[in-house]
Structures are given as C-alpha cells and as structure tokens.
C-alpha cells in the first residue's frame, strides 16, 4: 500500500474532492484526519473510513481560524503522535455572486482569500514545526486551473487566491526542503465533485460548455475526481521523493490552449 502507516490530514474532507482523497488515503493504508465545518458531514466521512478498518480522527474546525487550526493539529498529534501529510484542500469560490472586478465586494474578496490562501498558510505553518522535528513531511496544496489561466466558474478573488497558492508553495518548499519536507501543488480544471459544482456547471449555457469541453486536447470531457485524487496520492507518497516546489496541472491539456 502506497501510504502504509502514514498519518494524513486532509482539510475540507467531509465532501467533494477532499472526501475522495481521504477515502483513497485510507484504502492505501493511511491513518486519516477528516475535517470540515459541518459536524454531521465530518462524522459521516469518518464513519465511512472506519468501515475500511482504518484509524480516523474527525475534527470539526474552520481552517480560516488560527486558534481552530492550532487545536486541529494538536488533536492530530495527541491522537497519532506525528503528521506525515497535510493536504490543504479546503477552498472554493465562496458563493461567488459576480465574476467581474467591479462586482466583487471587499467582503467577498476577504472571504475567498481567507478560505483558499490564508487557510493554506495557517495549516502549513502549524504542521511545519512537527514535520521539522520529524525531519520529514509532505504538504500538497490545492490550487486550480484558475491560477494558470482564468476561472470559468469563479471570480477574481478565487483566481488571485489560487495563484497566490503557487507562490506560497514555491517559497515554503525552498525553506522546508532542507528539513525533508516536500511541498507541492496541484491545479485541477473543472471537476464535478458534488452538487455545488454540478449546479455551477449547469448554469453555463450550451455554447460556454462546448467551448470549454472543445478546448481539452485529451477529449471532450471534464476530469473525473479520481484523476485528481491519484495525483495528490502520488505527491503524498514516497514515490515522489525528488519533487518539491512543483505544480502539477490536471486539466487534460487545457493549459496549452
Ligand atoms: N471542483 C472543481 O471543479 C475544482 C477545480 C479546481 C480546484 N478545486 C479546488 O479543490 C478543492 C475542493 O473542491 P470541491 O469541489 O471538492 O469543494 P466542495 O465540494 O465544496 O467541498 C469543500 C470542502 O471543504 C470544506 N470547507 C469549506 N470551507 C471550510 C472551512 N472554512 N474550514 C474547513 N473546511 C471547509 C467543506 O465542508 P464544510 O462546508 O462543512 O465546511 C467541504 O468538505 C477546493 O480547494 C477547490 O477550490 C476544485
């Protein structure tokens, strides 16, 4: 198993891509910390992992809140005595009302930057001290195609936050590399991860959908969640032992278009 005996914390793992990552990590032998703000969905995800007979810790925490992040990492260390992998997955467009610059309120800007970028900073900083002590660790940050090109379902702050994650990834990869801590990012394109994205995709008209799908060199289709999970799993494993500061695009080749 690729992640045997690893301890992995996946933020925002009660639903969507994060939950699929948590399940796959458990199947690959990891002990998993699942997280989200809604207690019911966090506990539901934890129960699904328990059914795989893997150790699991359920933590209800808002990753934009410094004290809650600290407490989540403390709980992880108290339960498992170490942390091998952090996946900074929690994020999203924050219920975008307008995709234009002028339609973006300061409140929306701060919310989306907080949810995607500040959370990644807070969680990475909190695990770094433990990973440094261990002299090993993996951090995988969830960016987006919006960081490489433009966001098609999201607005200005989302593109800015996800682009910020790429710079953050490189900067801390350099700082933490000498401690055996590898830091990378993935940049997926649109992936139907659950009802939220399904609804947003459904709101595009047929021509917009056709233009997006038609520009994908690897075929007239969106990514499957598994295609995101597999790359995150690889970057979290010992197989990716000489990769740091990198961003892997998972977009069927759209970056080239
Ligand atoms: N799906 C796509 O098309 C796509 C493409 C590129 C990148 N991404 C990125 O991939 C990641 C996952 O996307 P997704 O589509 O799977 O999202 P999703 O289905 O909306 O799930 C988001 C998860 O994050 C949790 N979450 C949200 N805010 C949180 C907070 N403040 N603190 C802790 N947990 C929080 C949610 O639970 P609660 O709401 O209960 O807290 C949920 O578990 C995001 O970073 C997203 O930007 C997605």
The stretches of 5 or more residues where confidence is low (pLDDT under 50) are none
Distance between the termini: 37 Å
Strand order of the largest sheet: 3-2-1-4-5-6-7
CATH C-level label: Alpha Beta
The CATH architecture designation is 3-Layer(aba) Sandwich
Work out the helix count: 8
Bound molecules: NADP nicotinamide-adenine-dinucleotide phosphate
For this structure, the quaternary state is single chain
CATH T-level fold name: Rossmann fold
Order of helices and strands: EHEHEHEHEHEHHHE
Estimate the mean pLDDT confidence: 96
Category from helices, strands and their pairing: alpha/beta
Q: Estimate percent helicity.
A: 40-55%
Counting structural domains, the number is 1
The CATH superfamily turns out to be: NAD(P)-binding Rossmann-like Domain
Number of β-strand runs: 7
Radius of gyration: 17 Å
């Amino acid at each position: 198993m690729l992640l045997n005996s690893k301890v992995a914390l996946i933020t925002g793992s009660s639903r969507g891509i994060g939950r699929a990552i948590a399940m796959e990590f458990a199947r690959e032998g990891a002990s998993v910390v699942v997280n989200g703000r809604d207690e019911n969905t966090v506990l539901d995800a934890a129960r699904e992992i328990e059914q795989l007979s893997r150790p699991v810790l359920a933590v209800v925490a808002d990753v934009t809140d410094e004290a809650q992040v600290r407490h989540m990492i403390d709980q992880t260390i108290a339960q498992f005595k170490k942390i091998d992998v952090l996946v900074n997955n929690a994020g999203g467009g924050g219920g975008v009302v307008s995709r234009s610059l002028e339609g973006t309120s300061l409140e929306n800007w701060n919310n989306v930057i907080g949810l995607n970028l500040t959370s990644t900073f807070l969680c990475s900083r909190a695990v770094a001290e433990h990973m440094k002590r261990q002299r090993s660790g993996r951090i995988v940050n969830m960016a987006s195609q919006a960081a490489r090109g433009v966001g098609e379902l999201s607005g200005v702050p989302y593109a800015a936050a996800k682009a910020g994650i790429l710079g953050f990834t490189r900067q801390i990869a350099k700082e933490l590399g000498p401690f055996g801590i590898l830091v990378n990012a993935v940049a997926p394109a649109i992936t139907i991860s659950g009802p939220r994205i399904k609804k947003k995709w459904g709101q595009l008209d047929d021509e917009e959908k056709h233009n997006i799908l038609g520009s994908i060199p690897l075929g007239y289709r969106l990514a499957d969640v598994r295609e995101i999970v597999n790359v995150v799993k690889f970057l979290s494993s010992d197989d990716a032992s000489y990769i740091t500061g990198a961003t892997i695009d998972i977009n069927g080749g759209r970056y080239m278009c």
